[in-house]
Design brief:
The chain is mainly beta and 635 residues long. The protein has eight helices and 31 strands. The chain has a 20-stranded antiparallel β-sheet that branches. Strands 1-2-3-4 form a four-stranded antiparallel β-sheet, covered by helices on one side. Strands 5-6-7-8 form a four-stranded antiparallel β-sheet, covered by helices on one side. The protein binds copper (II) ion. Copper (II) ion binds next to strand 23.
Length: 635
């Protein structure tokens, strides 16, 4: 049917709707069956790597559905080429991600509930149209009444007026348990009235005012951008990659290569943020369950912003649209979901030879591929950077409104901070796990941990100054579960043992951790079991196409143990084989008054840098910078 250019192109709107129609017709699915995800069923690696332009492409869709009448979850692979369901599986004891319709229906069910209305009236709230009910994933706490049910624990806020920040006034001490399959309120837990915070928390210019003194900065690229986008293929400064997008992970990068002296050298086969979790540290009734897995429980791709409604990038921007699905299996276009642009990134390198009086300096340019998702109160921006020095970086930008609560005047809880009169922000952490299917000059790679150690004093170290970097092979999955150690200068290096550089060393890329932290939830906490991936900063697994997500396929309400801890159980050997590197990075959030009413961006991430991949600085031939201001004067 559909003619597509490449096997990794995301499903088109037509393909999503056709896949849904095929599965709904062939399986005779009724109206109570919700479609959770419809995404590309990625072809096998060898098929993708062998693909040449013009080759026929066999398209297939991976579909996740829930029968809300029976509470059963199904997975289907739909062959679009053959127009049939190629596989159909019921997945026992699995709760798939919560979809947008469920949020909407859940909010309506809560508003209509007499117990909730009574709790609101007790707090002096009579205009329920100003109330905002966010359905938080329920977690898994072993409560017998939760067993076998598809649940959320809903929290309520109320606006003072229709234009106010929706999260300004938390209705504290109130939690509502909703069965999403029956779409009924099971329980309203009211721990007693806490006054609503007294202030508005607007952040529009009308509410917050506008400062003066800013003169324009103009970024102009009179000849257009230096990248070329053809379909989903992006080329820039010797980099070449395919941009993918799934409803679950959002932005995905495929087949990232660097052209080096006429050779197209692979670096990554696939890269994405394969899950994340936000554990909160407050044990009280309306806080203990807050630990959203925003990728696996909600589908961060379905929550991506259409950037036509506000984009933060400057310069010559090109957009890619994304298409996700709704619960009926219809296509939902997200225009401009992916933003691509170049930006100046300070200096690339410099040297002044004071004897000769000569200077060579180059400015760095970087390519930015980004997407922003809004998950209830929080915004997460995902920014992949590509450099002229061969580096790849991922930066996640956290912003939006902190998850909050209210406290009685004078109360100062142990597990958080007061950010404004009556408004409380619990301590929490955001752990992201990037799945990096590495392909450094070929599929078979090895991973080393590099620590720097001081040499003992002795005949070889008479001045006690000696220290050196020590590389340890992570030889199997059991030994490849590591923590960051900034005081040891720790990093990890992914090498190709059968490709040598001119120094005779295997070519490699190193994974440089950025700011990081350990999880503080106890070892037996539900979230620690369910988000096992966060207990290690680095995991390496042997490639298995079924091992896709850090917290497993179905983290929602999962009791724990899935994902990385189960992927490494067989302790597969890792030397000179197809490896996947998983890097967990945590943003530690002790909230501040300055995070209110909307939080300044907190960036967190990591870098992949060439380390013996090139023979010299790959940015040597970047041209000298044009004179300051020249560009804009030309206009
Ligand atoms: Cu935070």
């Amino acid at each position: 049917m559909t003619v597509t250019a490449h096997p990794l192109d995301p499903l088109t709107a037509e393909e999503i709707e056709r896949a849904s129609a095929i599965v709904r017709a062939e399986r005779a699915l009724g109206p109570r069956v919700r479609t959770i995800f419809v995404m590309l069923h990625e072809p096998a690696k060898k098929t993708v790597l062998a693909h040449r332009p013009g080759d026929a492409v066999e398209r297939a869709a991976f579909v996740v559905l829930i029968d809300s009448a029976e509470g059963k979850t199904y997975e289907a692979v739909v062959s679009l080429a053959e127009g049939r369901v190629a596989s159909w599986t019921q997945v026992p004891d699995a709760q798939p991600a919560i979809v947008l319709d469920e949020f909407v229906d859940c909010e309506a069910a809560v508003r209509a509930d007499a117990r909730w209305q009574e709790a609101m009236r007790k707090r002096g709230i009579t205009d329920f149209s100003l109330a905002m009910v966010d359905c938080w994933s329920a977690g898994h706490f072993g409560f017998p009444q939760d067993e076998g049910r598809r649940l959320v624990r809903a929290l309520t806020w109320v606006r003072r007026h229709p234009q106010d920040n929706g999260y300004a006034r938390p209705v504290a001490n109130l939690s509502t348990v909703v069965d999403l399959n029956a779409m009924t309120v099971l329980e309203v837990v009211d721990g007693g009235v806490i006054p609503l915070p007294p202030e508005d928390a607007g952040y529009s210019p009308e509410a917050a005012g506008i400062r003066t003194g800013l003169k324009p900065i103009e970024i102009c690229q009179p000849e257009g951008p230096s990248f070329a986008l053809e379909g989903h293929e992006l080329r820039w400064q010797r980099w070449r990659m395919r941009i993918g997008f799934t409803p679950r992970e959002g932005l995905v990068l495929h087949t990232v290569t660097y052209e080096d002296g006429g050779r197209e050298r692979p670096v990554l086969y696939r890269a994405s943020v394969a899950d994340m979790v936000v554990p909160y540290g407050d044990p009280r009734p309306t806080y203990f369950h807050r630990n959203a897995f925003d990728v696996g429980e909600y589908g961060i791709g379905t929550l991506a912003n259409a950037l036509e409604n506000g984009c933060d990038c400057l310069g010559e921007i090109r957009y890619l649209d994304a298409v996700v699905n709704d619960s009926r299996g219809r296509a939902v276009p997200l225009p401009n979901a992916i933003c691509i642009h170049e930006e100046d990134a300070g200096i690339l390198w410099k040297h002044f030879d004071w004897r000769l009086g000569t200077t060579e300096v180059r400015r760095a340019r970087r390519l930015v591929v980004s997407s922003i998702s809004t998950v209830g109160n929080y915004e997460y921006g995902f920014y992949w950077y590509f450099g002229q020095d061969g580096a790849i970086q991922l930066e996640v930008k956290l912003t939006g409104v902190i998850s909050n609560g209210a406290e009685r005047p004078g109360d100062r809880p142990r597990w958080g901070e007061m950010v404004a009169p009556g408004v409380y922000g619990p301590i929490h952490q955001h752990f992201f796990c990037a799945r990096l299917d590495m392909m450094v000059d070929g599929a078979d790679n090895s991973v080393y941990e590099i620590n720097t150690v001081s040499d003992p004093p002795g005949p070889d170290n008479p001045h006690h100054n000696a220290f050196h970097a020590e590389a340890t092979l992570l030889s199997s999955e059991a030994s490849a579960q590591r923590l960051a150690a900034p005081l040891a200068g720790r990093f990890w290096k992914i090498v190709n043992p059968s490709a040598r550089n001119r120094m005779g060393e295997p070519v490699g890329y190193k994974l440089m951790p950025g700011e990081n932290v350990r999880p503080f939830a106890g070892p037996d906490a539900s979230v620690t079991r369910r988000a096992g991936f966060m207990t290690r900063h680095l995991w390496v697994t042997r490639y298995d196409p079924r091992e896709r997500y850090a917290a497993g396929e179905y983290p929602n309400q999962h009791p724990g143990g899935a994902g990385l801890p189960s992927y490494v159980q067989d302790d597969a050997p890792l030397e000179n084989t197809d490896v996947v590197v998983w890097y967990t990075f945590g943003a530690h959030h002790v909230v501040r008054p300055e995070d209110w009413p909307v939080m300044p961006v907190v960036p967190i991430g990591f870098a992949l840098k060439p380390s013996g991949f090139f023979d010299r600085n790959p940015g040597l031939d970047v041209p000298r910078p044009t004179r300051h201001g020249e560009c804009c004067q030309e206009r």
